[in-house]
Task: inverse folding
C-alpha cells in the first residue's frame, strides 16, 4: 500500500464476494437459530408455575443491578483467580464485540469513521481487548489442565467450549497479523499484538501473497468458528451469558434464609399440588435459573452436606432440573435427583450465597421436598417430626405439657390468656425441650430478671414456629402453626418478640409477614445483649479469661445479615480474646442441624458438626461461642470427635451470665 | 349398585388426635387395596375423615352400610369399646378377627397378615374370606398424608353420636406385685436435666460414683447387679420354681405353639437348658412389675413389618421404600 | 351334677396351663374367695401336663377340650360351656390370639369386655375392674352391675399366682366341642410363627442392654462386649460415635438419631454421654456407666458410675459370674 494512503484498512478486502455472502448468511442463520432456541427455551420456562410475588425491584433497578454486577464482578471476585480471569475474559469479549460492531457499521452502513486517529486508538484498544480475552481464557484453561480445583466440572463438552473460544481468539490474532504482514504499514504499530505477529510472520518469510493467503485461510476458519459460537450460544455453559443476566436481574431481595411465600389457598383453587415432582411444577424462575448455571461448582464447594460426603451435590440438583427440561414433561424428578440427595440438605443457604448467577438452589430443594411430602413418601424421621409438631406442637416428640419444665427453680413470668404483653420472650422448642437449648433459656431468664425488664413467656401455649416443618416440605403444617401463633400473639397485643433461636427469629421476622399482617418487631438475643451492653445496663464486669471463636449461625449471619452484634458483645467482655475461623460471618460453615438434618441424619463419610468442630479447634480457641441452641448441641456433639484438648461450647448468653456474675 | 369395596378403613380420633394405629391402618388400606377403599368413622370426627379422604379413600359410608371384604381398624376407630367393637363387627360380618396387625398384603385368595405376638415374635397368617384386622399401635407408618391434602379433602357431614369419653387417671400399682420405686417418666427427665446442670439443686440423683481399680469396680458392679436381680451369684439346684420360670418364659411368648419350640433362644438369660452341664445354673430374676414395665408390656416391642425397613430414624436408608435385609 | 356345676362364678380360659395361666388363676382364686364362689379353668388343649397343678393352684374344676382348628368353633365351645355355669368374671390371656378369643366370646354372649385389665375387685355384688389404657400409664375403674358378666384380659406378669397347695382336690373333665353345621366365624387358614432371634432382635425389645462407645477403642471391643452381654443375657447397643467409626451396625445405635430404648438395665461402656445419646436411654431403669473420664456427663445420669478401665472391669465381672 502507498505510504501516504489514509490511516485505515480495507475491510474484508481479501475476502471474495461469495465467501463474504456465505459468511453473512451463515452468521444470520446461526444467530437466527440461536435466537429461536432462546425463545423456545424461554417459552419452556413459562410453562412452569407462576412465580411467587417478588418484593420491589423495578425494571430500571434490575437492569442497573445487572450492569453494576458486570462492571465490578463483586460476587465473582470471591474466588480471586476465577474472578480476575473472568474480568479479563469478559471485558476482552466486550471490547472485541464492540470492535466487530464498529467494523460492521463501517462496512455495511453509510457511516464512515473508521480511519485516522479513531482507527489507531480503536486498533490499540481492540488488540488489548483481544489480549485480555486470551489471557482470561488461558487462566481458565490452565486451571482446567494443570490446576487441582475440585469444583469445576471436568467434562469434555465444557472443555470443548473453552477450546473453541481459544481458537476464535487465536485465529483472530493470526488473521490480523497476516493482514499486517502483507506490507506492514507503519501506523499498524498501534495494533500492538497484530503488529508483533506480523513482524514474526515476516521474519519467517511470510509476506505479500503468502500473507494474503494465510489471511484468507485464517479469516475463513475464524468466520466458521464464530458462526459455530453463535449457534452454540443457547447451549452448554454459554447459555449463562443470556440466562445468567436475566437471572441476576430477577434476583430476589429476600433474606438468604427465607423461603418464597406460598399461597396454598390459591393453589388449592387452581387444583395444584404444592411442591414439584415434575419440572413443569417448578416455578418459571426456577427453570430459568437452571439454565443459567455455569457449572462453576461454587455451590458444591460451600455446601456442608457435600463436605461431609453426603449424597447432596447442589450443582447436580440444578443440572438435574435442566436435564429434566430436556426430557419429557412427566418425568419424575426423583429419577434424576434421589431422595437421599434431597434429605441431606441443611438449608443453610450457602449455595444461594455463593452462586455467581443468582440461582436459588436451596429453594429448589425445598420445592422438591414439598413434592415428596405431597406424594406421601418421606423418611420416618420427617413424618415423626410432622406428626409431633401437629399433635404436641414441637418436633422433639415430647409432650406439650412439659414445655415449661426447663424453668424449674427459676422465676419465669408466664402470661395468662388475654393479658397484654409488651415484650414476649419466645423460648422456642429447642429452648424448651433440648438440654442444650434449655441452658440458653435459663441464662436468658437470669439476665432478663437481673435487668428488671418487664417480659412474659407464653408457656404451654407456645407452638413450634413451624420452621422445621417448612424446611422439610410440609408447607401446610407450617402455615397452620404460623397462623395459630400469629393469632396468639395478636390476642396478647405483643409489640416486641425476643428470641434466642435464629430459626424462630427468621420465621417471625421474614416468614410470618408473608402470611398475615404482624404488628410486632423481632430481636435476636445477641442483638438484645449488644444493645444492653451498649446502653450500659449490663456491666459484664467479671473477667472471662478465654480464647473464643464465634460460630455464626446460618440463619443469623448469612440468613439475616447479623454478624456484628455478637462480636460486639464478645469484645466488651473483659479478658476475652477472639479468634475467627476461616469460614465466619456470612461465609460461616453450617453446624449441620438445619432443614431437619438434626433428625434426618443422612449418612455421609464424615459429619458436618465434626468438620466444623475441627475447624474451630484449629483456631486454637478454648471455647466455641454461638448464638443458636441447635448449633450449640451440634457442636457439642462434634467436639466429641476431636482428639485434642477439650474445647468448650457455650452460648453467648451463658458467657454474659458468667461475666455478670449471675 | 357400587361394587363391594374390597377394603374398608375404620378410624376415629381420641382426644382430638388421630392415633398412630389409625394412620397406619389407612396407609395399609390405601397402599394394598388401591382405590376401592371406603372410610367409616363411627363418631364422624372431621379430622379422621379428612385424613382418610386425603390419604386416598374413595368414599365415606356409615359402618352399618359397609360390607367390605377386609376391615382395617385403628384404635381410634374401635373407640372406647376397643377389642369388643371389632369382635362384634367380626361376629356380625362372619369375618375372622386378627389383633395387633403390623402388616397386610393383599393376595389372590385373601390377605396375608403379619402380627405381633409380643417380645419380638411375629405370626404370619393367611386369611381367606372376610377379615377384621385391628392394627397395632406400633405398626410402621408407611405413608404420610400432608396437611394440604387433609385440608383439600371435603368430608361429608356425618351424623353420629359421640362416645362418652373415658376419664383416665394415674395407675396405682397392685400392692403385692409393685416394685414401688416411684420412678416415673418425670424422674427420668429430671435426671437428664440434672446431668446438664439445668436443675439448680433439683432431683436427687442418688448416683454412686466409684473411682478405684478395676477389681474393686468389678466387685461393686456384680454386687449391684445381684442386688437388683440381674445376676444370681448363688447357684440354685434344678427345682420346681426354676422349672416353672422357664415354662413361664416360654409360654408367655408362644401360647399356641408346641413347647418343643420353646428353646432357650427367646429366654433372656441363655441358661444351659435345665442341665448339670456347665454348672451355670441361674434363676431368672423375679419379674417385678413397675409402671414402666407395664407400659412396655402393653405397648409391646416394635418389630419390623413384612417387607419394610424398621422404624429407624438413623442414617441410610432414608427412603421408606427401600427394602431392608435386616430383621 | 347340677350342684357341683353351679356356683362357678369365676373362670380362667387359656390354651395351656402355662405360668401366665397360673398367675391369672391366682387372681381368680382370690376374687372367688371374696365373692364366695368357685373357680374353673377352661383349657383349649389336651396335654395332660399341668392340669393337676391348676387344681393345686386354686382351681376347683378344670375343663378341657381338643383345640379346634378354627376360632369359630373354639369361641362357640367356650361360650356354650361357660354360660351354662352362670359366670360373672372370665379371665383371659393378654397376647393377641388370647385377646381375640376373649373378645369374640364377649361379643357372642354380649358380655362386657375389659382389655387390658390391671385388677378385678368385688364389692357388694358389684364387680369393679381397673382398666388400663394402651400405654399402660393410665387407668380407670369400670363397674359391672349384678346382672352383667365381664371378660377381662391380663398380660403376663400382671396377676399373681396362688401358692401351690398339693392337698387341694378338684375335678378334671373333658368336654366335647360344640359342632354346628355352619360355622359363623372363618379364621385364617395358615399360620406361621416367627420367633424372635436374640442375636438380631431389635434392641428396643431387650430388657438389658450393654452399650459401647468410643472408649472401646476399636471393633474388637465389641466382640468382648458381646461376650459380656451374653453372660448377662443382654443385648448389645452402641453410641453414635461407635457406629460412625464403623465398629457396629447402625441398627444398634441408641440416641436421638437412633433408637429410643427403655431397658431395665443399661450398662454404658466408654460412652461419654452427649445429650443426643442420653435422649435415647434416659428412661432406663438402672443405668451403669464405666468410663475413664470422671467428668463425663453420663456419670450424672448413671445410678452407678465406675471410673476404671472398662475391659478390666468387664472381665472381672465375667469371672465372678461364671
Result:
Amino acid at each position: 500500500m502507498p505510504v501516504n494512503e489514509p490511516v485505515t484498512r480495507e475491510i474484508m478486502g481479501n475476502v471474495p464476494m461469495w465467501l463474504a455472502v456465505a459468511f453473512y448468511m451463515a452468521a444470520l442463520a446461526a444467530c437466527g437459530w440461536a435466537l429461536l432456541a432462546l425463545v423456545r427455551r424461554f417459552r419452556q420456562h413459562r410453562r412452569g408455575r407462576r412465580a411467587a410475588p417478588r418484593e420491589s425491584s423495578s425494571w430500571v433497578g434490575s437492569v442497573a443491578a445487572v450492569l453494576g454486577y458486570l462492571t465490578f464482578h463483586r460476587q465473582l471476585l470471591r474466588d480471586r483467580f476465577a474472578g480476575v480471569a473472568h474480568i479479563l475474559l469478559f471485558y476482552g469479549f466486550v471490547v472485541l464485540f464492540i470492535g466487530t460492531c464498529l467494523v460492521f457499521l463501517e462496512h455495511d452502513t453509510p457511516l464512515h469513521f473508521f480511519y485516522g486517529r479513531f482507527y489507531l486508538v480503536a486498533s490499540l484498544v481492540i488488540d488489548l481487548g483481544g489480549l485480555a480475552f486470551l489471557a482470561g481464557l488461558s487462566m481458565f484453561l490452565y486451571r482446567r489442565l494443570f490446576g487441582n480445583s475440585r469444583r469445576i466440572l471436568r467434562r469434555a463438552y465444557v472443555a470443548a467450549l473453552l477450546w473453541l473460544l481459544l481458537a476464535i481468539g487465536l485465529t483472530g490474532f493470526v488473521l490480523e497479523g497476516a493482514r499486517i504482514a502483507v506490507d506492514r504499514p507503519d501506523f499498524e504499530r498501534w495494533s500492538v499484538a497484530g503488529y508483533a505477529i506480523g513482524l514474526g510472520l515476516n521474519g519467517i518469510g511470510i509476506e505479500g501473497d503468502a500473507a494474503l493467503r494465510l489471511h484468507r485461510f485464517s479469516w475463513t476458519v475464524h468466520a466458521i468458528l464464530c458462526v459455530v459460537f453463535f449457534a452454540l450460544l443457547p447451549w452448554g455453559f454459554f447459555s449463562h451469558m443470556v440466562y445468567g443476566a436475566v437471572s441476576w436481574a430477577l434476583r430476589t431481595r429476600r433474606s438468604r434464609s427465607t423461603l418464597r411465600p406460598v399461597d396454598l389457598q390459591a393453589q388449592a383453587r387452581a387444583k395444584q399440588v404444592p411442591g414439584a415432582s415434575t419440572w413443569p411444577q417448578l416455578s418459571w424462575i426456577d427453570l430459568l435459573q437452571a439454565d443459567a448455571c455455569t457449572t462453576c461448582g461454587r455451590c458444591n464447594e460451600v455446601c456442608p452436606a457435600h463436605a461431609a460426603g453426603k449424597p447432596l451435590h447442589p450443582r447436580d440438583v440444578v443440572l438435574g432440573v435442566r436435564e429434566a427440561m430436556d426430557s419429557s414433561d412427566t418425568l419424575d424428578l426423583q429419577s434424576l435427583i434421589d431422595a437421599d440427595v434431597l434429605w441431606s440438605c441443611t438449608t443453610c443457604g450457602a449455595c444461594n450465597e455463593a452462586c455467581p448467577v443468582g440461582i436459588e438452589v436451596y429453594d429448589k430443594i425445598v420445592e422438591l421436598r414439598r413434592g415428596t411430602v405431597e406424594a406421601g413418601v418421606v423418611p420416618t424421621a420427617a413424618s415423626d417430626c410432622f406428626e409431633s409438631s401437629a399433635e404436641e406442637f414441637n418436633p422433639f416428640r415430647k409432650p406439650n405439657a412439659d414445655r415449661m419444665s426447663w424453668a424449674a427453680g427459676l422465676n419465669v413470668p408466664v402470661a395468662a390468656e388475654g393479658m397484654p404483653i409488651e415484650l414476649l420472650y419466645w423460648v422456642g422448642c429447642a429452648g424448651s425441650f433440648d438440654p442444650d437449648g434449655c441452658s440458653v433459656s435459663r441464662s436468658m431468664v437470669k439476665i432478663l430478671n437481673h435487668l428488671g425488664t418487664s417480659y412474659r413467656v407464653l408457656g404451654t401455649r407456645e407452638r413450634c414456629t413451624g420452621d422445621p416443618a417448612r424446611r422439610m416440605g410440609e408447607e401446610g403444617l407450617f402455615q397452620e402453626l404460623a397462623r395459630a401463633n400469629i393469632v396468639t400473639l395478636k390476642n396478647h397485643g405483643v409489640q416486641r418478640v425476643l428470641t434466642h433461636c435464629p430459626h424462630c427469629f427468621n420465621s417471625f421476622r421474614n416468614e410470618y409477614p408473608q402470611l398475615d399482617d404482624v404488628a410486632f418487631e423481632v430481636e435476636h438475643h445477641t442483638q438484645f445483649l449488644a444493645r444492653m451492653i451498649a446502653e450500659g445496663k449490663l456491666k459484664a464486669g467479671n473477667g472471662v479469661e478465654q480464647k473464643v471463636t464465634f460460630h455464626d449461625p446460618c440463619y443469623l449471619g448469612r440468613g439475616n445479615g447479623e454478624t456484628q452484634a455478637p462480636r460486639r458483645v464478645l469484645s466488651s467482655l473483659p479478658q476475652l480474646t477472639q479468634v475467627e475461623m476461616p469460614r465466619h460471618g456470612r461465609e460461616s460453615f453450617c453446624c449441620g442441624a438445619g432443614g431437619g438434618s438434626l433428625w434426618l441424619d443422612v449418612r455421609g463419610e464424615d459429619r458436618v458438626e465434626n468438620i466444623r468442630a475441627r475447624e474451630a479447634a484449629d483456631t486454637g480457641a478454648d471455647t466455641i461461642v454461638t448464638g443458636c441452641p441447635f448449633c450449640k448441641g451440634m457442636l457439642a456433639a462434634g467436639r466429641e470427635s476431636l482428639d485434642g484438648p477439650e474445647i468448650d461450647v457455650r452460648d453467648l448468653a451463658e458467657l454474659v451470665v458468667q461475666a455478670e456474675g449471675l | 349398585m357400587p361394587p363391594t369395596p374390597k377394603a374398608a378403613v375404620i378410624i376415629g380420633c381420641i382426644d382430638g388426635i388421630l392415633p398412630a394405629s389409625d394412620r397406619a391402618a389407612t396407609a395399609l388400606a390405601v397402599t394394598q387395596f388401591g382405590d376401592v377403599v371406603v372410610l367409616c368413622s363411627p363418631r364422624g370426627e372431621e379430622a379422621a375423615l379428612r385424613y382418610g379422604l386425603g390419604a386416598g379413600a374413595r368414599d365415606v359410608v356409615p359402618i352399618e352400610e359397609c360390607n367390605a371384604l377386609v376391615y382395617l381398624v385403628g384404635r381410634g376407630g374401635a373407640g372406647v369399646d376397643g377389642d369388643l367393637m371389632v369382635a362384634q363387627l367380626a361376629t356380625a360380618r362372619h369375618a375372622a378377627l386378627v389383633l395387633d396387625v403390623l402388616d397386610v398384603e393383599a393376595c389372590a385368595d385373601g390377605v396375608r397378615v403379619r402380627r405381633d405376638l409380643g417380645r419380638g415374635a411375629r405370626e404370619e397368617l393367611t386369611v381367606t374370606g372376610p377379615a377384621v384386622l385391628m392394627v397395632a399401635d406400633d405398626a410402621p407408618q408407611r405413608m404420610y398424608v400432608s396437611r394440604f391434602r387433609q385440608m383439600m379433602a371435603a368430608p361429608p357431614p356425618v351424623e353420629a353420636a359421640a362416645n362418652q369419653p373415658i376419664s383416665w387417671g394415674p395407675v396405682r400399682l397392685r400392692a403385692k406385685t409393685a416394685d414401688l420405686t416411684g420412678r416415673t417418666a418425670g424422674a427420668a427427665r429430671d435426671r437428664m436435666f440434672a446431668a446438664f446442670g439445668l436443675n439448680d439443686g433439683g432431683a436427687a440423683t442418688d448416683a454412686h460414683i466409684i473411682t478405684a481399680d478395676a477389681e474393686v469396680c468389678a466387685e461393686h458392679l456384680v454386687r449391684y447387679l445381684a442386688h437388683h436381680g440381674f445376676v444370681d451369684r448363688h447357684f440354685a439346684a434344678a427345682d420346681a420354681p426354676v422349672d416353672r420360670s422357664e415354662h413361664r418364659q416360654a409360654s408367655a411368648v408362644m401360647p399356641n405353639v408346641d413347647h418343643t419350640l420353646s428353646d432357650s433362644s427367646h429366654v433372656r438369660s441363655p441358661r444351659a437348658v435345665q442341665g448339670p452341664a456347665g454348672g451355670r445354673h441361674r434363676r431368672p430374676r423375679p419379674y417385678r412389675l413397675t409402671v414402666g414395665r407395664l407400659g412396655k408390656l402393653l405397648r409391646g416391642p416394635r418389630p419390623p413389618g413384612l417387607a419394610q425397613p424398621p422404624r429407624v430414624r438413623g442414617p441410610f436408608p432414608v427412603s421408606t421404600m427401600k427394602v431392608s435385609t435386616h430383621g | 351334677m347340677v350342684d357341683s356345676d353351679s356356683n362357678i362364678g369365676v373362670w380362667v380360659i387359656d390354651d395351656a396351663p402355662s405360668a401366665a395361666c397360673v398367675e391369672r388363676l391366682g387372681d381368680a382364686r382370690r376374687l372367688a374367695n371374696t365373692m364366695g364362689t368357685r373357680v374353673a379353668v377352661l383349657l383349649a388343649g389336651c396335654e395332660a401336663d399341668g392340669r393337676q397343678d391348676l387344681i393345686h393352684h386354686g382351681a376347683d374344676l378344670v375343663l378341657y377340650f381338643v383345640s379346634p382348628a378354627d376360632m369359630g368353633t373354639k369361641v362357640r365351645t367356650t361360650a356354650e360351656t361357660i354360660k351354662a355355669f352362670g359366670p360373672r368374671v372370665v379371665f383371659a390371656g393378654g397376647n393377641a390370639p388370647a385377646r381375640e378369643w376373649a373378645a369374640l366370646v364377649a361379643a357372642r354372649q354380649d358380655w362386657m369386655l375389659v382389655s387390658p385389665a390391671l385388677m378385678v375387685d368385688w364389692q357388694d355384688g358389684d364387680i369393679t375392674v381397673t382398666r388400663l389404657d394402651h400405654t399402660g400409664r393410665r387407668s380407670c375403674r369400670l363397674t359391672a352391675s349384678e346382672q352383667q358378666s365381664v371378660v377381662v384380659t391380663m398380660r403376663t406378669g400382671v396377676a399373681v399366682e396362688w401358692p401351690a397347695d398339693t392337698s387341694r382336690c378338684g375335678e378334671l373333665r373333658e368336654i366335647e366341642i360344640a359342632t354346628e353345621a355352619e360355622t359363623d366365624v372363618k379364621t385364617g387358614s395358615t399360620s406361621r410363627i416367627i420367633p424372635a432371634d436374640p442375636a438380631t432382635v431389635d434392641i428396643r425389645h431387650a430388657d438389658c442392654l450393654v452399650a459401647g462407645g468410643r472408649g472401646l477403642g476399636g471393633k474388637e471391643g465389641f466382640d468382648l462386649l458381646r461376650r459380656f452381654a451374653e453372660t448377662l443375657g443382654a443385648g448389645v447397643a452402641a453410641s453414635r460415635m461407635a457406629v460412625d467409626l464403623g465398629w457396629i451396625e447402625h441398627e444398634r445405635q441408641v440416641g436421638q438419631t437412633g433408637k429410643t430404648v427403655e431397658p431395665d438395665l443399661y450398662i454404658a461402656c466408654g460412652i461419654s454421654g452427649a445429650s443426643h445419646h442420653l435422649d435415647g436411654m434416659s428412661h432406663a431403669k438402672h443405668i451403669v456407666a464405666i468410663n475413664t473420664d470422671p467428668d463425663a456427663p453420663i456419670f450424672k445420669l448413671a445410678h452407678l458410675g465406675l471410673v476404671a478401665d472398662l475391659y478390666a472391669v468387664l472381665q472381672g465381672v465375667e469371672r465372678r459370674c461364671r
Q: What stands out?
A: Residues 29 and 58 of chain C are 6 Å apart (CA to CA). The interface with chain A takes residues 214, 240-241, 244, 250, 256-257, 272, 274-276, 278 of chain C (CB under 8 Å). The domain at 203-321 of chain C is CATH 3.40.50.1220 (Rossmann fold).
